[in-house]
Structure formats: C-alpha cells, structure tokens
Amino acid sequence: MPSRYGFYGLLYLDAATSGGVNLARRADAIDTYLRCAATCHGSFAAQGVAFSLITNDADLVRARLNALGCGAIGVVEIPFQAVVPPGTPFYAAHFKLDVLRAFARGDLGSHVGLVDIDCVLQRPLSLSDALSVYEISEQIYPAYGIARVRADLERIAGIAVQRPLWFGGEFIAGPSERFRTLTQAIDACLPRYLGALDALHHVGDEMVVTAAIHRAMADGLAVDDLGCGSPGRGAQIVRWWSSRTYHRQVSLTDAATCAILHLPSDKGFLAAQVGKAPDPGRFLRDYEAMFRRKRLSLRVQRLLDRMLRRPDRRVAEI
C-alpha cells in the first residue's frame, strides 16, 4: 500500500456512547473502544501505515489514552453536525458523514481512508486511485431480501438501481477528489433519507453512503471493491462474526487470509490485545482459541432455536 495513505478511525463521544454497540453490557464502553483503537493502530503501525483517531473531544480522548498506556495514537478533532435526531438508531455512526466531508475537503490528506476501530490490518493493502469500498450484499440479502434492499436504495438515491449492492461502513478509502464526488451524491441523498427514517430496512451511515455510491457510480465514479472474490482469492477485507448469522460465512481459515479483518462481535478480545507485540500469527492463534471456546455455546443456542422453531442462524467454522 502506498505510504501516502493515512487511515483514520472514528470515536464520537456522547451520552449514548457508554451503551456500546456489539459490546458486553458491563464493559466500560469508552475504554473498550479506545483499547480497540490501540490494537487497530498497532496493526497498522506494524505495516508502516499511519492511523489516527478522529473524535469530537480530543482532550478527553488523549487523557484517557494516556491513562490506558495507549498515548502513541494520534488524535484529531474535527467539526461535527448532527443530521438525524438524537435517539435515531446508530445515531453516532451518522457522524461518519462528517469524516467523509473532511476527506473531501482535503483536511486530512490527499489519500485517506476510514476504518472501523474493531479492525486489524494483517498485511499491506493494494489500493488503486478509485474509491476503494467493501461490498457486503451477500450479508444483507438473507436478512432483508433483495427486493426491499433495491426499493430502499432507489428511494434514497433517487435513481433506478438495476443491480443493488450494499457497501459496509467499516472501510472506505481513496484520493480526496473521489470523496468530493461522493459527498456531492450524499448531499443529494440526505433529504430523501431524512424523510424516510421510519420506513427503511436499515438506518445508519451505510444506508446513506450506499445509496450515494450508486448515484455517484451512475455519474461515472470509479469504484474498486476490496471484498471482490473469495478470501484467499482476491479479497482484501472481510467482516467476520464469531456470533450466529443469517448468512453463510467463509471459514475463519479463509477469512484470515485477508489484509483487513473486521471483528464486530469481538471488541472485548480486541481490547485485551493492547500491549502485545503486533504479530498476525500470534493474533490469529489467540483468536482461534477464543472462538473454539465460544463455538460450543453458539451451537447449543442454534440447537435451541431449532427446537423452538425460531429462525435458524448459522455458526461459523474454523
């Protein structure tokens, strides 16, 4: 990956932050998120790639990182403006739109990327000059159906969508001019999105950005899917759940071949990696050992689902 790229994670702090998303109830959410960010930072640093944390309260974040022994992470504060009412599902995730605007302005560099802080970089990425994204349609269709996904995308994008695709919010990267094109499409989509919050299958940054990408692609935006192909055969990023899912996942062995592992249901594990030397081999061995212990209880839950005739959810394999 060209050294000209700088990557950023987002931690927006508000009264709801302590509730956490995909986080154990008793965990201190802010510290857990910061430790995840430190693990993410360590994995990027090991590959010689810059990673900093964007927030709305730099002083608080720096102080907390120092207290946790994670002060090596760069912290950047940018202006944020709420676009949805407080209490909206995934309220804080909508502030990713402000990060994309900062990218578009060139405030954070000419070649930039946004990555969720519960990701780890295992090897260098190969990036083009297109807008690099991660398409996860196969994870969305089983839960909602392709017809509804298409209808919602067309409603927000304001155009016909012949081939509906869904793009994950955990990764996006490219030159700042690509983000300028994207944010123009976001501005066109936002009024329709805000008018349909109660009717959509999903509310959050992914809905807005996915619709905007479709709109921008129709106008000629070049897009490069880093999830294209199966892991081990071209894919560079994977979202992998150690919890039950409605879609069939690749095995952990295949997922581990990707450059970026996104582990949204394992923030506790990621937080516990702070202070360990960045070593993809050790990390994967520890993660596999954790999942082997977890998998037994997941299989018991799946058996109960079948006995009670609840919707069946799959358990991933190693």
Topology:
Layout: E1 6-11, H1 29-46, E2 50-55, H2 58-67, E3 74-77, H3 96-105, E4 111-115, E5 119-121, E6 131-133, H4 137-144, H5 146-157, E7 171-175, H6 176-194, H7 205-218, E8 223-225, E9 237-239, H8 252-255, E10 260-262, H9 267-271, H10 280-307
Parallel strand pairs: 1-2, 1-4, 2-3, 6-8, 9-10
Antiparallel strand pairs: 4-7, 5-10
Helix pairs in contact: 3-6, 4-5, 5-7, 6-7
Question: What does this entry show, briefly?
Answer:
With 318 residues, this protein is of the alpha/beta class. It has helices spanning 29-46, 58-67, 96-105, 137-144, 146-157, 176-194, 205-218, 252-255, 267-271, 280-307; strands at residues 6-11, 50-55, 74-77, 111-115, 119-121, 131-133, 171-175, 223-225, 237-239, 260-262. Helix 3 (96-105) runs antiparallel to helix 6 (176-194), helix 5 packs across helix 7 and helix 6 (176-194) packs across helix 7 (205-218).
Task: Describe this entry's structure for a reader.
It is built from ten helices and ten strands. It is of the alpha/beta class and 318 residues long. It has one domain: Spore Coat Polysaccharide Biosynthesis Protein SpsA, Chain A (Alpha-Beta Complex). Strands 3-2-1-4-7 form a five-stranded mixed β-sheet, sandwiched between helices. Strands 5-10-9 form a three-stranded mixed β-sheet. The longest helix is centred in the C-terminal third of the chain and has 28 residues, at 280-307. The chain starts with 5 loop residues before the first strand and ends in an 11-residue tail after the last helix. The mean pLDDT is 91.
